Amino acid sequence: MKRLVIAVFAAVVGLGLMVPDAEARRLGGGKSAGMQRQATPAPTAPAAAGKPAAAPAAAAAPAAAAKPAGMSRFLGPLAGLAAGLGIAALLSHFGLGEGMANMLLILALGMVAFFVIRWLMSKRTPQAGMQYAGAGPGNAAPANFTPARFEGSGVGAGATVAAAAGNIPADFDVEGFLRQAKLNFVRLQAANDRGDMDDIREFTAPELFAEIKLQHQERGGRNQETDVMQLNAELLEVATEEGRHVASVHFSGQLREDSGTPEAFAETWHLVKPTDGSRGWNVAGIQQV
């Protein structure tokens, strides 16, 4: 009985330290996935960005200090097991009365029940909608970008819109395209947070969707929250090749994942659309820059 209680108590302590260790990640996991285009020109900072553009740079220093990501995933479980084994050895060394053993067994079972209930609730309860500062975008929506069904948050007043010269057709609606691109960026982050694979499938090409679905499975399907604090967009190029249009949009700004430290980010999304107009634009790749 004594050994059983010690073993259960050690396992519960290890579980308690391992549960909070899952990391929140934005759509794509913060790495390149799907289509990659080496010909994409390097983005240039918009001259009119002014003070809002300084925010991502100011956040770069705390972001670097807040990213001990790789090892933390392994240190959590190891620390939990070490603590559990240490307590087990201590109890075994000093002896354990039958009454105290029963009390610890009840406590251990209660802790197990607590962690199981919390895990189940995190999978079943949807997270609240994306928090995105700024005025609403109004009712107008540019054509030729998204599927018919769309709901999204407005774009903040501090966000910037730009286009690279020379790589975009003269009659292309750059402002409307980028506005809708930012709406979709926010929507897809929210869908990724709540694990809405149907919504993500509607907006992504098969090769990128497969990677996103795998990442969702690797995090155990748990919900998370990604707060888009600042979002800038620049249209780098619009090309036609192999029976499809390709548009590359460079996104930058600040994100906060699961109420953590705000972090600057910069990545380029490659969108594709068949030249025959059989369907709208889909995100085919995310490229870190």
Provide the descriptors you would attach to this structure in a database record.
elongated, Nuclear Transport Factor 2, Chain: A, transmembrane helix, 7 helices, 2 domains, 6-stranded mixed sheet, Tim44-like domain-containing protein, 6 strands, membrane, 19% strand, 289 residues, alpha+beta
Strand order of the largest sheet: 1-6-5-4-3-2
Computed structural class: alpha+beta
Helix fraction by DSSP (H/I, runs of at least 4): 40-55%
Order of helices and strands: HEHHHEHHHEEEE
Give a short account of the largest sheet.
6 strands, mixed
Mean of the pLDDT scores?
A: 70
- Terminal Cα separation, in Å? 58 Å
SS field, number of helical segments: 7
General form = elongated
CATH architecture grouping of the largest domain:
Roll
Strand content: 15-25%
Number of domains: 2
Low-confidence segments, given as residue ranges, are 16-22, 45-74, 125-161
CATH class of the largest domain: Alpha Beta
Q: What is the CATH topology assignment of the largest domain?
A: Nuclear Transport Factor 2, Chain: A
Secondary structure: number of strands? 6
What Rg, in angstroms, do the CA atoms define? 24 Å
Topology (elements, then pairings):
Blueprint: H1 2-18, E1 33-34, H2 54-65, H3 69-94, H4 98-124, E2 161-163, H5 174-194, H6 197-203, H7 206-218, E3 226-241, E4 244-257, E5 263-274, E6 282-288
Parallel strand pairs: 2-3
Antiparallel strand pairs: 1-6, 3-4, 4-5, 5-6
Helix pairs in contact: 1-3, 1-4, 5-6
Biased composition (Low complexity): 39-49
Protein name: Tim44-like domain-containing protein
Transmembrane segments: 74-96, 103-121
